């Protein structure tokens, strides 16, 4: 995208990312989860998962979205979750089991740059505060993988820190922190709607919200027909 020069880079390795999220997994809900839930809920409502659908969540963390999706697909549907962190998977697996939904869910440790699923496999996909964790050249690759595994007319909803929404002092401060402390603030605002369009999706709905003064895009898009 033309705005690539304006987006900060992510320099930590996959091994570093996995170690970080393994380390904070027990405290993730307190550190970040509660801040994110309001807009995550907005994204889940936009995605509008129905009973019987097959759904993917990328980077599910401690499982808040997975629980909601598992309830939405019902007994005849299926939810697949892929995450880099084994510790996050352990926590989510336990949470899903306590809610009696384990028969509807499958967990995979892996990387969204190479999704281990067949083409045209899913009805819907969900990413919440995950896409901005990928380095700038990786973002279109992740979205093209999502496009591949979705069926025609399949839906994706992405919730992400955003460069959109006008000037923001808090965003500038956050981006400065990302540049200076990239191992601590390992994500940064990106252009979500534009990235989805350039990956080949048809955007049907896009809104701007905020988390702690940081602009957040919530974008719903579909895979066009061939």
Number of helices: 7
Name of the top-level CATH class: Alpha Beta
Based on Cα principal axes, name the global outline: globular
CATH superfamily: Vaccinia Virus protein VP39
Biggest sheet overview: 7 strands, mixed
Structural class label: alpha/beta
Contiguous low-pLDDT stretches (5 residues minimum) are: 1-5
**What share of residues are in beta strands?**
15-25%
Q: Which bin fits the share of residues in helices?
A: 25-40%
| Overall tally of structural domains | 1
Mean pLDDT: 90
In the CATH hierarchy, the third-tier topology is known as Rossmann fold
C-alpha termini separation: 23 Å
Task: Give the total of beta strands.
Answer: 7
CATH architecture: 3-Layer(aba) Sandwich
Strand order of the main beta sheet, please? 3-2-1-4-5-7-6
Work out the radius of gyration.
16 Å
Secondary-structure map with pairings?
Blueprint: H1 14-24, H2 28-47, E1 54-58, H3 64-73, E2 78-83, H4 86-98, E3 105-109, E4 122-128, H5 139-149, E5 150-161, H6 169-180, H7 192-199, E6 202-211, E7 214-222
Parallel strand pairs: 1-2, 1-4, 2-3, 4-5
Antiparallel strand pairs: 5-7, 6-7
Helix pairs in contact: 2-3, 5-7
Features:
226 residues, 7 helices, disordered N terminus, alpha/beta, Rossmann fold, single chain, globular
Quick recap:
By secondary structure, this protein is of the alpha/beta class. It has a single domain (2-222), classed as Rossmann fold (3-Layer(aba) Sandwich).
How would you describe this protein?
The structure is a single chain. This protein has a 7-stranded mixed sheet with strand order 3-2-1-4-5-7-6. Helix 2 packs parallel to helix 3 and helix 5 packs across helix 7. Helix 3 links the parallel strand 1 and strand 2. The chain has a single domain, classed as Vaccinia Virus protein VP39 (Rossmann fold, 3-Layer(aba) Sandwich). The chain is built from 7 helices and 7 strands. 38% of the residues lie in helices and 24% in strands.
